[in-house]
From TrEMBL:
Catalytic activity: malonyl-[ACP] + acetyl-CoA + H(+) = 3-oxobutanoyl-[ACP] + CO2 + CoA
GO molecular function, one term: beta-ketoacyl-acyl-carrier-protein synthase III activity
EC primary class: transferase
UniProt lineage: Bacteria, Bacillati, Actinomycetota, Actinomycetes, Streptosporangiales
One annotated Gene Ontology cellular component of this protein: cytoplasm
GO biological process, one term: fatty acid biosynthetic process
Organism: Actinomadura spongiicola
Family to which this protein belongs: Belongs to the thiolase-like superfamily. FabH family.
Entry protein name: Beta-ketoacyl-[acyl-carrier-protein] synthase III
Keywords associated with the record: Acyltransferase, Cytoplasm, Fatty acid biosynthesis, Fatty acid metabolism, Lipid biosynthesis, Lipid metabolism, Multifunctional enzyme, Transferase
HAMAP family, sorted: FabH
Free-text comment on this protein's domains from its UniProt entry: The last Arg residue of the ACP-binding site is essential for the weak association between ACP/AcpP and FabH.
Length: 322
């Protein structure tokens, strides 16, 4: 008798069928923040690049944000909820640590009993979740996966701290990942720098987000472009072939520095931070959804995604635009 196992549903590749996004209705401008803390519109635009951000209402938690974005991605994919076998929710701003939020998002979307778990890699969370979804599909562990990045950063912000309250915001983005005969999601390049764990941190349940802005800025503008370049190399794509570069929307100066160093001379560079602020694990699918909706990037073209932030954790991959 042979003890050999089989993997009946393994696939050669995985690809994104559709993205979805959700921005809470309430817009908070720089001028509105400047009425309560010592800052001004020009300082924020010049140093960070943000003009306004969205802040969720009291009745909108991680689940509601995730359901809105996940529902839109699911509708765009043309799949039925019963086609989804796994739901991964990337978040670092959950109201409580237990239970995870992915099972509730799945339930609210009518996805019956899928595998479901939350993933915390902070601002790199969406790229980690996308890589995990791709691996699950290729290994035959799921036919289709719903990946959601949902963040309510506003509930972890000290609204009297001008160094953080101008930056972080709320929102959600999502993607449906399916099996394919050729790869539409390239290899992930991921890593971390745990020695810098305290550079962006919420210390305990009574604390707010705190960061060492300058150290994070230096790290992001030096360490991340090589990671992005490596993701291109591993996917067999030259930076000049990229149609889009979608870095985590941390700070417009960081985004521009990464794109410049990567020399992606023909790419549209995501700048959703101007309107949406820094939404951590939601920022990449939010930005890319808007670029696709606007017609900035053609279907089938290669786009680089690169997430980085608290941990410190980072991840990058090249995908084909759905
Ligand atoms: C936070 C950040 C915008 C601050 O910009 P900076 O140019 O580094 O500013 P500094 O921290 O050196 O502060 C310079 C001065 O501006 C002041 N300042 C800070 N926030 C301010 C604000 N919102 N408005 C006006 N002044 C502000 C500081 O108090 C400091 O004043 P001082 O010189 O009198 O002490 C910038 O460091 C940054 O974006 N870092 C990366 C953070 C990030 O992206 N985090 C998320 C990663 S996922």
């Amino acid at each position: 008798m042979s003890g050999g196992l089989q993997i009946p549903d393994a696939r050669a590749g995985a690809r994104v069928l559709a993205f979805g996004d959700y921005r809470p209705a309430r817009i908070v401008t720089n001028d509105e923040i400047a009425r309560t803390v010592d800052t001004d519109d020009e300082w924020i635009r010049t140093r960070v690049g943000i003009a306004e951000r969205r802040i969720a209402g009291d009745d909108e938690g991680i689940v509601e944000l995730g359901v809105h974005a996940g529902g839109k991605a699911l509708a765009g994919s043309g799949l039925d909820p019963s086609d989804i076998d796994l739901v991964i929710l990337a978040t670092c701003s959950a109201e409580s640590p237990m239970p995870g939020y992915a099972p509730q998002v799945a339930h609210r979307l009518g996805i019956d009993a899928p595998g479901a778990f939350d993933l915390n890699a902070a601002c790199a969370g969406f790229c980690y979740a996308l890589a995990t979804a791709s691996a699950a599909v290729r290994a035959g562990n799921a036919r289709n996966v719903l990946v959601v990045g949902a963040e309510k950063m506003s509930q972890w912000i000290d609204w009297t701290d001008r160094s953080t309250c101008i930056i972080f915001a709320d929102g959600a983005g999502a993607a449906v990942v399916a099996g394919s005969d050729s790869p539409g999601i390239g290899p992930v390049v991921w890593g971390s720098a745990g020695d810098k764990y305290d550079k962006i941190i919420i210390e305990d349940r009574h604390s707010f987000i705190r960061q060492e802005g300058q150290s994070v800025f230096r790290w992001a503008t030096t360490a991340i472009a090589p990671v992005a370049a490596q993701a291109c190399e591993r996917a067999g794509i030259k930076p000049e072939e990229l149609a889009a570069v979608v870095p985590h929307q941390a700070n417009l100066r960081i985004i521009e520095a990464i794109a410049r160093r990567l020399k992606a001379v023909n790419a549209v560079v995501a700048d959703d931070i101007v309107q949406s602020g820094n939404t951590s694990g939601a920022s990449i699918p939010l930005a890319l959804s808007r670029m696709i909706e606007r017609g900035d990037v053609p279907s089938g073209a290669p786009a680089l995604l690169v997430g980085f932030g608290a941990g410190l954790s980072y991840a990058a991959q090249v995908i084909q635009i759905p």
